[in-house]
Structure formats: structure tokens, C-alpha cells
Amino acid sequence: MTPPTNSLITGYVVMIDDGFDGAFVEGYDGRGNPSKLTTKIEGLRSQTIYRIKAYAINKAGDGQVSDIVTCYTVTIPNQPGTPKLVTSDSTSITVSWEPAFDDGGSPI
Asked: Using DSSP, how many helices (H) and how many strands (E) does the chain show?
């Protein structure tokens, strides 16, 4: 996505809560960089729900705040059980394993 060429927007600010439905803080300050429309917010806790909102800025000040989106940080799933041979024939094998007990916060 690119901003309109005649835009008077001078940047965007992204706000993120503390992960506990608490106060919002700046997660990205894009003042002076109106063409950047994507950012990565780092330093978050895994398996945590965050609320995020944003607003545009121009010479007159801050614009209206966007709707809030809810996001969830995930981790990689833990290790499944060791595969075990169930049956085999000349063209295939069937194996089984115990599931991973922690899905990292996202369905496997």
C-alpha cells in the first residue's frame, strides 16, 4: 500500500496496550515518515493478547483514532512424541506419535 501522492499526512502513530487491557503506549512513532504503512512492534510477551490502534498526523495535529484490533502473540509448539512404527508393507508405512502438549497459543 502506498499513500496518495497529494496527501498532507505527515506520519502515523501506532498505540498498543500493555497486554493486560491496561493503558496504551506508543508502539510506533512514524511522525515525519508518511510513506511507512507497516511496522513491527517488538519486546512483547508470548501468548499474550494485545489491543492495537493507530492514528494519522498532519500539520493541524492528530487525526481520529482507528478502531481497535485485538492481536495475539504465539510461540512455536513444543515437541511431539517420538514417531512409532504401526505397520509397513512394500509401498508404505504407518506411524503414530503423541501430540505436542503446548500448541504455542495457535492451533497446530
From this structure: 0, 7
What's the confidence (pLDDT) of residue 105? 75
Work out whether strand 11-17 and strand 93-96 pair parallel, antiparallel, or are unpaired.
Answer: unpaired
Kindly give the parts of the chain with pLDDT less than 50.
none
Q: What DSSP string runs through 65-76?
A: PPPPEEEE----
Pick the CATH number of 11-72 from 2.40.340.10, 2.40.50.100, 3.40.250.10, 2.60.40.10: 2.60.40.10
pLDDT given for residue 3 in this prediction: 57
Nine cell digits for residue 78: 513444543
* Gap between the Cα atoms of 94 and 61, Å rounded: 64
Q: What are phi and psi of 71, to 5 degrees?
A: -125, 155
With a CB cutoff of 8 Å and minimum separation 6, the contacts of 85 are 93, 94, 95
> pLDDT by residue (tens digit) across 76-93?
888 999 999 999 999 999
